[in-house]
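Query structure, 235 tokens:
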């Protein structure tokens, strides 16, 4: 059984489709858009995927605890947590407000911390997995004046990934991160595909394929990995 945060649209929905066809039973956590969640559940259902959506604010400790209680009570197990939710902010750092700073870090990093920490009791029961969606080169310190809080949050997510991988290996839990580059459905500003060595943006499915690999037994000895999926961008 897999829990995917932000699983009702874009990369999250592509991940849901890939995992659902393995097959995993799915719980998709979403925050606000009920209509989009219903569409996602119907779409996945037509593929024969067992799925339901649960409205949750994954930046709030109480909401996350209720979500994991729901997973335990209804599903009875948790094999995989995918931390996918995270708002993007493109704005010069000196013009970023404190509210924007806090919201971006909470969305991208605090949410992953809360979901990972609260999931541990269930994941430890069966030696499950955590896969987080970060951002390209989040494992490299570089100047990012227009995406500062977002980049800091994603770098923090990489540190969280490596730290959890080390501490949880004793319980049979693997923890990895996938770092997308520019994606066709993403929120980044318009990007010239010719500036990317592969000559185009990624599709959400191409990111989801890497998540699927990490979720399989073929990756049974992979933990603490940070996999960039960016078509050569920023090399």
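Result returned for the query:
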């Amino acid at each position: 059984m897999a829990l995917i945060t932000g699983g009702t649209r874009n990369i999250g929905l592509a991940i849901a489709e890939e995992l659902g066809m393995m097959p995993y039973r799915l719980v998709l956590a979403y925050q606000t858009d009920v209509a989009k969640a219903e569409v996602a559940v119907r779409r996945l259902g037509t593929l024969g995927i067992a799925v339901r959506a649960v409205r949750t604010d994954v930046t709030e400790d109480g909401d996350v605890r209720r979500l994991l209680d729901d997973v335990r009570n209804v599903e009875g197990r948790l094999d995989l947590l995918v931390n996918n939710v995270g708002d993007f902010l493109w704005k010069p750092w000196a013009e970023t407000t404190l509210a924007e700073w806090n919201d971006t870090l909470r969305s991208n990093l605090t949410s992953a911390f809360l979901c990972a920490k609260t999931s541990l009791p269930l994941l430890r029961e069966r030696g499950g997995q955590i896969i987080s969606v970060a951002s390209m080169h989040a494992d490299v310190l570089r100047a990012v004046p227009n995406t500062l809080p977002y980049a800091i949050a994603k770098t923090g997510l990489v540190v969280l990934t490596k730290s959890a991988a080390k501490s949880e290996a004793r319980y049979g839990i693997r923890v990895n991160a996938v770092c997308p580059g520019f994606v066709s459905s993403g929120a980044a500003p318009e990007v010239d595909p010719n500036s990317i060595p592969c000559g185009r943006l990624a599709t959400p499915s191409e990111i989801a394929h890497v998540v699927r690999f990490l979720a399989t037994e073929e990756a049974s000895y992979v933990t603490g990995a940070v996999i960039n999926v960016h078509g050569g961008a920023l090399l």
